[in-house]
Amino acid sequence: MKVSILVVEDDKAIRNFISATLEVHSYNCLIAENGEQAMLMVTSNKPDIIILDLGLPDIDGVEIIKKIRLWSNCPIIVVSARSEDKDKIEALDSGADDYLTKPFSVDELLARIRVAIRKMNYDNTRKEESTEFINGELKIDYISGCVFVKDEEIHLTPIEYKLICLLAKNVGKVLTHTYILKEIWGVAYESDIPSLRVFMATLRKKIEKNCEKGRFIQTHIGVGYRLIRINN
Predict the structure, then answer these.
(1) Is the pLDDT of residue 210 over 70?
(2) Same-domain check for residues 116 and 136
(3) Residue 230 to residues 78, 120, 133, 138, 206: CA-CA distances in angstroms?
(4) Separation CA 119–CA 105 (nearest Å)
(5) Looking at residue 26, what DSSP letter applies?
(6) In 10 A of CB 209, how many CB atoms?
(7) Taking the CB of the first residue and of the last residue of the chain, which one, N or C, has fewer CB atoms within 10 A?
(8) Domain that holds residue 182
(9) Are 118 and 132 in contact (CB under 8 A)?
(10) DSSP label at 179?
(11) What is the chain's percent helix, strand, coil content, to nearest 5?
């Protein structure tokens, strides 16, 4: 079965060049011209690998990486004109697997793809990616961006949603205040911890309404928080 690769690139010439190269080398190529199309293709077609430009017209590529990483471990190879170290670090820290700076050679691109394929094949115990998270009575639908408790939709703010997704991604693990601040806001200052506590308190109040106190989120005083794993 052919490896499917999604190419997310708004520049038509580069997009055609990459897609033609992939097809010549017997890869199944999917195309997206912007971030919105990319997210639709990722959720509906579930490509094996994603080649992603960061400078898209509607959504910055880094934001796309972060969204995909909420529910998928699909290898992401960034191909971008951004050559500064800070841009590479931001993309990699957000979850990209590799970073190629434009202009690049065909051989180099194909080599990076082969590395991604070897990584996929090595992890032969990897289960098919799920577009939802279920933990007891808590359910997160990543495609719709909705959270449910006892099948009742819980209305969360964007920050609260990011927090519950981060906790779900690391269910059963204690996440430190510093780690959470960096993942959600990009920086971690000790002075921001009180604000984090407020957000966590409101999140807990919403998702644990009508549930036993401490049912989902556990506070580790002075350290951080943990989403308790519940046997479904």
Answers:
(1) no
(2) no
(3) 36, 29, 12, 9, 18
(4) 22
(5) T
(6) 11
(7) N
(8) 132-227
(9) no
(10) H
(11) 45, 20, 35
> What is the amino acid identity at position 188?
A
Please name the amino acid found at residue 14: I
Residue 28 β-bridge partners: 4
Same domain, 114 and 20: yes
**What is the per-residue pLDDT for 128?**
46
Is 90 exceeded by the pLDDT of residue 131? Answer: no
SS3 159: helix
Task: Let me know if residue 53 belongs to a domain.
Answer: yes
Q: Which of 43, 75, 45, 82 lies closest to 61 in space, CA to CA?
A: 82
Q: Examine the fold and report which residue of 122, 146, 172 is the final residue of a domain before the chain moves on.
A: 122
77 close to 116: Cβ distance less than 8 angstroms: yes
Measured distance CA(23)–CA(4) in Å, rounded: 10
Choose among 105, 223, 92, 208: nearest CA to 160: 208
Residue 136 lies in a domain: yes
What token pair was written down for 204?
């807990």
Q: Which amino acid is at 72?
A: S
Quickly count: other Cβ atoms within 10 Å of residue 122's Cβ: 9
Pair 95, 166 in one domain: no
Residue 77 sits in the same domain as residue 165? no
107 shares a domain with 11 = yes
187 close to 179: Cβ distance less than 8 angstroms: no
| pLDDT, tens only, 68-123 | 988 888 899 999 998 888 888 888 888 888 899 998 899 999 999 998 887 777 55
Tokens of 165: 């997704």
Domain boundary among 103, 122, 141: 122
